[in-house]
């Protein structure tokens, strides 16, 4: 298939592109390479896919990979209402994997406009292109943050998610509602994926795994919010991408025949890990002890996440299962190599 992967210079988009290429698909990666975090990490991910920095620096210019003839890249904003439809018209994609988004719960308190631009305007543009250019299936990133103040554990896609507590979460919930509308009105199969705390090599510098490792190695204190009384369903990157790719490669014809055009899945490890246990694993792998600065809970944070993945098991015979010990070791090994 020919697949558009938006957010291709991002953490999940980079890995998803790699696996799709390994599986023989044609992939066009799209990313605006914004400076929300270190752009060098994004350029280095693209370098792994055969796109050099000079190629990636020009907006709206489709360039070919030097390593894989089945990969191309374009630097573009998904909110670009003029150039995005031109890309769809020219490239004639079969399916779309929309992983582009302004990420981060806490940053949404500081810069709310960027979430509206990318996550709402940009997502609407993606939906419009899917409608107008005969896309067979749209798979898009949602988030575990949509569960907000939900008290039921583990979190199920059957739960009410009308109480998000960050603008980021609200935009992701909005994406699900927008996708439902387009599925209903225009018979487009759409699948939302609620990711649970993704970590691993090449991960985002604003996430706990990266922040903690970086601080401990450099002898700085780490910020431990809610005085350590936090639990997260930490999910290793390979497990996330395995779920994404299985759904991308699944038949949308069956969905249309069953009239199941709109679906949402949790992709998580189906296990809640205490934050202090997570930190302990990092300490073990670094052979260093963390200086812990215990702080109150941050606005927008939830105390606990835990994914019910029964639907993923039933529909795709898949359940993420990478242990924290394996995942943390893989990240720390990568970090030491990447930062020498």
From TrEMBL:
Stored CDD domains: UDP_GE_SDE_e
InterPro entries in UniProt: Epimerase_deHydtase (IPR001509), NAD(P)-bd_dom_sf (IPR036291)
Signal peptide: none
SUPFAM superfamilies from the UniProt entry: NAD(P)-binding Rossmann-fold domains
Pfam family name, one: Epimerase
Keyword Ribosomal protein (UniProt): no
Keywords of this entry: NAD
Domain NAD-dependent epimerase/dehydratase: 3-268
Name recorded for this polypeptide: NAD-dependent epimerase
Transmembrane residue ranges: none
